[in-house]
């Protein structure tokens, strides 16, 4: 694990050294890698601009714990969120949403399976189908929320996710709460789902 972390930090710091400007970090999973980088090279916290998928403030499918990306490695989430300046959170309040749920009968899948779709679309459709089958065998929902593309769109500064400044307290288990004495963050407060889906469909199926 240490060798992996050391290699990651070495490669990332080498890449970061090629520019003296801000560094965009798009977090679509647990914050383990970001925490490792910031713990070993803390001065990068001054330059890294983080857009992270995760956290919930008002609604989530399991209110007894942090959302999945934070719950997977709560220590890493706590470290990274405290070290980064004003992290931008695409909250699970807005990503666990039927509007961006791709299922076997979704228009997106129909386009990927189309006879006129590019060859790589067949592989992407097969991965969706494998995921649906995996979920079915576990007795879980069969869809796939497009929360990662939504997070990417926010990092690209596209207009689909609206953010608002909040002061946030981070608990030991990585659950987050509004707190006037908390850490400054920007959190999602609204999403243009129709606009996002149009962008996603055009990008994937053009």
Description:
The protein is 44% helix and 19% strand. The chain contains 9 helices and 8 strands. A hairpin with a 5-residue loop joins strand 6 (161-170) and strand 7. It is globular, with a radius of gyration of 18 Å.
Pick out the low-confidence regions. none
Q: How confident is the prediction overall: mean pLDDT?
A: 90
Q: How many strands? A: 8
The percentage helix is 40-55%
Major β-sheet strand ordering: 1-2-3-8-6-7
Q: What is the overall number of helices?
A: 9
Strand content: 15-25%
Order of helices and strands: HEHEHHEHEHHEHEEEH
Largest sheet: 6 strands, mixed
Condensed summary:
This protein is of the alpha/beta class. Helices cover 44% and strands 19% of the residues. The strands form 2 sheets. The chain has a 6-stranded mixed beta sheet. The chain has a two-stranded antiparallel ribbon with strand order 4-5.
């Amino acid at each position: 694990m240490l060798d992996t972390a050391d290699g990651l930090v070495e490669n990332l710091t080498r890449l970061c050294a090629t520019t003296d400007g801000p560094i965009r970090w798009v977090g679509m999973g647990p914050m383990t890698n970001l925490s490792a980088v910031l713990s070993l090279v803390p001065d990068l916290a001054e330059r890294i601009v983080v857009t992270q998928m995760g956290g919930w403030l008002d609604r989530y499918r399991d209110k007894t714990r942090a959302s999945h990306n934070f719950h997977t490695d709560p220590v890493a989430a706590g470290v990274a969120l405290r070290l980064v300046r004003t992290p931008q959170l695409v909250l699970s309040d807005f990503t666990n949403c039927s509007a961006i749920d791709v299922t076997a009968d979704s228009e997106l899948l129909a386009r990927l399976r189309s006879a006129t779709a590019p060859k790589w679309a067949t592989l992407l459709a097969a991965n969706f189908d494998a995921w649906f089958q995996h979920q079915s065998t576990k007795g879980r929902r069969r869809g796939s929320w497009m929360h990662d593309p939504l997070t990417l769109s926010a990092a690209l500064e596209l207009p689909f996710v609206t953010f608002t400044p909040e002061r946030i307290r981070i608990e030991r288990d990585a659950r987050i709460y509004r707190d006037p004495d908390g850490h400054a963050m920007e959190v999602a407060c609204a999403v243009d789902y129709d606009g996002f889906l149009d962008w996603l469909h055009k990008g994937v199926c053009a």
